[in-house]
Design a protein that fits this description.
The protein has 382 residues and is α+β, with helices and mostly antiparallel strands. The chain folds into two domains: 1-244, no CATH class; 248-380, Conserved hypothetical protein from pyrococcus furiosus pfu- 392566-001, domain 2 (2-Layer Sandwich). It is built from twelve helices and 16 strands. The protein has helices spanning 17-20, 30-39, 62-78, 111-115, 127-139, 155-164, 189-200, 211-222, 260-267, 318-327, 350-359, 373-380; strands spanning 10-12, 82-84, 90-97, 100-110, 119-120, 147-151, 171-174, 180-186, 205-209, 232-239, 248-252, 271-276, 290-295, 298-304, 342-346, 364-367. The strands form three sheets. Strands 5-9-6-10-4-3-8-7 form an eight-stranded mixed beta sheet, sandwiched between helices. Strands 12-14-13-16-11-15 form a six-stranded antiparallel beta sheet, with helices on both faces. A two-stranded antiparallel sheet has the order 1-2.
């Protein structure tokens, strides 16, 4: 069962969409975001800045940056970048990349759905990231990135969505990343009631992207003493079979006092290790249990030895294997939720994202194979 509610959002104006709609915040390193903002001064990403995006000798405080973000949001509301929708509505959101299409219902979902266990998560959050997002919600008061939820495919929902998308979209545009984005507004009361009823009939929803935003939404609601929009969060609900799960790569600040040769030697008992000399840009993990290691401008392929893979479903996940066989015993990363020496890089940036982090001083980059939707849902159900 998942409750979905209509809402009245600010929607980017049709003639401004290509300039205003932001790329995924986490897909860029701080230096890349700063460069993007300078090159695209009308883009919404300028309202999402953190102190790490500034490279002056004296960085602004978090409060100063939040004030800046809030002011930039207000300017964009005043300069006709967005317009408020006059009717309560649901929305259909379609992403089209190459031959892949995925379509979501955009709605507000009560925070209580998560608190009462009807939305299942598969990973823990990092406290500093959670704190930053909570402060953003409290200070800026804007939610612009829907939390991604998956649900078991339902032909009845598909039928209603297909009917709606036969109409004229409210927005239809593409960005430089090649992703075509289309949005339909659902204001017909029968269609709204149909979707709400059908979502009440599904089982659990699964949190696939946005664990930190979800945790921040829960904390933001808990900090309020009255009911209001903070009791809900913005969600994109996708059929599970349509979702393409991206990997989340890792970077580590230092070598834990070891040389590259010592690291490779310590890995040998748990992994087969091969150095890669050619075709760097195309060498990424091709199967579960395989990792690509970037260190001191050298590239290695790591494959977990079969004898080191446990039987339990959590322990055999790539994220668990990486933590238990590499990050903790070799690099000294005891808890990936709290250790500031560890950071994450979205998989859509490929090896280039890890190389960019290396330029910024991160000494180890690790590319991972994406978790399958089946594994994600299985772990979340436990």
């Amino acid at each position: 069962m998942t409750q979905i509610h209509t809402f009245k959002p600010y929607v980017v104006c049709r003639d401004r969409a290509e300039h205003v709609v932001a790329p995924a915040y986490d897909s860029m390193a701080p230096v890349e975001r700063s460069a993007y903002i300078k090159a695209n001064p009308s883009n919404f990403i300028k309202t999402m800045r953190t102190p790490e995006d500034y490279f002056e000798l004296e960085k602004p405080s978090l409060e100063m940056v939040l004030d800046h973000n809030s002011n930039e949001v207000q300017k964009m509301l005043e300069d006709s970048s967005f317009e408020i929708q006059q009717q309560e509505a649901l929305y259909i959101y379609r992403l089209h990349t190459g031959d892949h299409v995925q379509t979501a219902v955009i709605a507000e979902v009560p925070v209580t759905e998560y608190q009462q266990g009807r939305i299942h998560r598969h990973e823990h959050t990092r406290s500093e990231h959670e704190n930053r997002l909570t402060q953003y919600l409290q200070h800026v008061g804007v939610s612009s990135s829907p939390i991604c939820l998956a649900y078991q495919d339902d032909a009845r929902i598909d039928e209603t969505v297909e009917l709606i998308t036969q109409g004229e979209p409210l927005l239809d545009f593409s960005l430089d990343d090649g992703v075509r984005q289309s949005i339909w507004e659902v204001i017909d009361t029968e269609q709204i009631d149909s979707l709400r009823t059908k979502f009440l009939g599904i089982g659990a929803a699964y949190l696939t992207d946005g664990h930190h935003r979800m945790a921040a939404s829960v904390r933001h609601a808990a900090n309020r003493t009255s009911n209001g929009p903070w009791n809900n969060f913005l969600a994109a609900l996708f059929p599970a079979t349509q979702l393409r799960i991206l990997s989340f790569n890792r970077c580590v600040r230092d070598l834990n006092g070891l040389s590259v040769e010592q690291i490779i030697d310590r890995l040998a008992s748990n992994f087969s290790v091969d150095q890669i000399s050619d075709n760097w840009e195309t060498v990424l993990p091709s199967r579960s249990g395989e990792f690509t290691l970037l260190v001191e401008n050298r590239l290695f392929r790591l494959q977990v030895r079969s004898a080191r893979i446990p039987d339990d479903p959590v322990g055999r996940l790539d994220v668990s294997l990486l933590q238990n066989l590499f990050l903790e015993p070799v690099l000294g990363i005891g808890d990936d939720r709290f250790d500031p020496r560890l950071d994450f890089v979205t998989g859509d940036s490929g090896l280039g994202g890890l190389r960019q982090r290396a330029k910024e001083g991160w000494q180890v980059g690790i590319a991972c194979y994406p978790t399958s939707m089946r594994d994600l849902m299985s772990i979340a159900d436990q």
